[in-house]
Specification:
Strand content: 35-45%
Radius of gyration: 13 Å
Shape: globular
Structural class: alpha+beta
Largest sheet: 5 strands, mixed
Distance between the termini: 32 Å
Helix content: 10-25%
Order of helices and strands: EEEEHEH
Length: about 100
């Protein structure tokens, strides 16, 4: 139900690579496509490989709490399979995390 990518110029300091991004969308994207997204929140995992959750303009949801329950449950089960999920952060906390991980901060 999502596209999987990363946030450009935003580094997960624990891993040393870009922060992962899940994009809710009705569009098909190819590897290398750059997409403008609105941040909805973040899946915070105990291994610190957090997953930022966003949406493109094709997806008509504005809060992480409003995502389709069935799809959201599937995503949480998938990303929580090997590493426990600690919490789901709201938009404001996620933006703070992104700013702290930005190469410009």
């Amino acid at each position: 139900p999502v596209c999987y990518g990363f946030l450009k110029n935003v580094t997960n300091k624990k891993e040393g690579d870009e922060v992962d991004l899940l994009i809710f969308s009705h569009n098909d994207y190819k590897t290398g496509d750059e997409v403008e997204v609105e941040i909805l929140g973040m899946i915070e995992r105990e291994d610190e490989d957090h997953k930022v959750v966003g949406k493109d303009m094709s997806y008509d949801v504005y809060n992480i709490e409003d995502l389709d329950r069935k799809e959201w449950k599937l995503i949480l089960e998938y990303f929580g399979f090997k590493h426990n999920i600690i919490s789901v952060k709201n938009k404001e906390k996620t933006i703070e995390y992104i700013v702290n991980c930005s190469m410009y901060s």
